[in-house]
């Protein structure tokens, strides 16, 4: 299992925009992944809301999101070729073989693959594999920051309910 870089937002205040984007994304990726730390398998799977949202499901969904925005959008491979569900809703579904360790490892691997896929691109480079049409990498980074920030908030609330 590969770890995400341990650089923090305060470390990159005077750095270029790309470094700031990468750092903020990695902070959110680490926080969401760590939301599972110290929980039992039952706690990670516990449903506390009407939707399929669980802590384990959130991190599984974040893995899907990484693959949509940094694999599908960049490589133009289909979701079937990548091996991910067709829809975001399906990405929350937990299988019997999903564990905290397996989901955390898959998430970290997807994050590292995302970093590698985007490394050679500039923020204004267009990604051609998204269903919306061509999108600049900058927009994808902003979208990912929004998505991860929302899910980190969801995870904070669920974790608080679970651990009291």
Element layout with pairings:
Elements: H1 17-34, H2 41-45, H3 55-75, H4 79-82, H5 100-119, E1 126-127, E2 135-136, H6 137-163
Antiparallel strand pairs: 1-2
Helix pairs in contact: 1-5, 1-6, 3-5, 3-6
Overview of the structural elements:
- By secondary structure, the chain is an all-alpha fold.
- The chain is built from six helices and two strands, in the order H-H-H-H-H-E-E-H.
- It has helices spanning 17-34, 41-45, 55-75, 79-82, 100-119, 137-163, and strands at residues 126-127, 135-136.
- Strands 1-2 form a two-stranded antiparallel ribbon.
- A hairpin with a 7-residue loop joins strand 1 and strand 2 (135-136).
- Helix 1 packs antiparallel against helix 5 and helix 3 packs antiparallel against helix 6.
- 32% of the residues are buried.
- The model has no long low-confidence stretch (mean pLDDT 95).
Entry summary:
This protein is mainly α and 164 residues long. The protein has helices at 17-34, 41-45, 55-75, 79-82, 100-119, 137-163; strands spanning 126-127, 135-136. The relative contact order is 0.18.
Low-confidence stretches: none
Number of helical runs? 6
Main sheet strand line-up: 1-2
Main sheet: strands, sense, barrel:
2 strands, antiparallel
Globular, elongated, flat, extended or rod-shaped: what is the shape? globular
Strand content: under 5%
Q: Give the ordered list of helices and strands.
A: HHHHHEEH
Distance between the termini: 29 Å
Q: What is the radius of gyration? A: 16 Å
Number of strands: 2
Average predicted confidence as pLDDT: 95
What level of helicity do the residues show?
55-70%
Category by helix and strand content: mainly alpha
């Amino acid at each position: 299992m590969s770890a995400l870089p341990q650089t923090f937002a305060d470390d990159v205040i005077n750095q270029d925009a790309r470094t700031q984007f990468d750092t903020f994304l990695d902070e959110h990726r680490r926080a969401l992944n760590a939301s599972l730390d110290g929980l039992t398998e039952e706690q990670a799977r516990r449903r506390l809301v009407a939707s399929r949202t669980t802590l384990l499901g959130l991190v599984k969904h974040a893995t899907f999101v990484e693959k949509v925005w940094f694999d599908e959008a960049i490589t133009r491979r289909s979701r079937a070729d990548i091996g991910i569900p067709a829809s975001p809703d399906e990405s929350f579904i937990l299988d019997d073989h999903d564990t905290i360790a397996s989901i955390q490892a898959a998430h970290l691997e997807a994050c590292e693959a995302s970093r590698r896929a985007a490394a050679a691109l500039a923020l204004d480079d267009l990604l051609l594999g998204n269903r919306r049409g061509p999108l600049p990498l900058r927009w994808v980074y902003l979208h990912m920051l929004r998505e991860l920030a929302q899910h980190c908030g969801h995870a904070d609330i669920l974790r608080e309910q679970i651990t009291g």
